[in-house]
Specification:
With 212 residues, this protein is mostly beta strands. Helix content is 2%, strand content 51%. The chain has a domain of 145 residues: 7 Propeller (Methylamine Dehydrogenase, Chain H), CATH 2.130.10.10. A four-stranded antiparallel β-sheet has the order 3-4-5-6, with no helix packed on it. Strands 7-8-9-10 form a four-stranded antiparallel β-sheet, with no helix packed on it. It has a four-stranded antiparallel β-sheet with strand order 11-12-13-14, with no helix packed on it. The radius of gyration is 19 Å and the shape is globular.
Length: 212
Amino acid sequence: MASVTSPVAFQEFCPLYYLLNAIPTKVQKGFRSIVVYLTALDTNGDYIAVGSSIGMLYLYCRHLNQMKKYNFEGKCESITFVKLLSCFDDLVALGTASGRVAVFQLVSSLPGRNKQLRRFDVAGIHKSSITALAWSPNGMKLFSGDDKGKIVYSALDLDQGVCNSSLVLEEPSSIVQLDYSHKVLLVSTLQRTLLFYTEEKAVKQVGTQPRK
């Protein structure tokens, strides 16, 4: 006889003050004091990544209880999306309001792992706000989508320090979600959901009716 599962009880937890207290509420830019807004979030078993309105990524290591900061060089602009990945190396991808995408290969204290912080840039294809990012499980592929419907595929060679990017799909409405598994990219836009088969470059729509 099948056992009856007990209902799931939702529990409210207190704010993560140890994390929030490590992020400034304001920064000084010349004579101006600028309020810092938290704009993007992703978590895994090792890190909590928080993007901000000043272009700074705050990365909290859960094992060491340490906060580190990463940013784009040059113009400060809001980070709109962050995506963590733990594979052989720890990776974090972030996108901004103007369409910049960068990947940071994090330093690890474990033997045989990466010992020097490295950054890869997805150059010049996106021209508008990044709304979605998706990793392949091995960290060799990154997909990025923006609010104009463009989806870019970036191939990362971590050993050679190379990132090659190309436009693979363009939809008529904003990308709202991406997920990748086994050579298939799941894409959701404001109008429809589809499967993009990366080897065949084929598109299969999920369902028949457009979203309203």
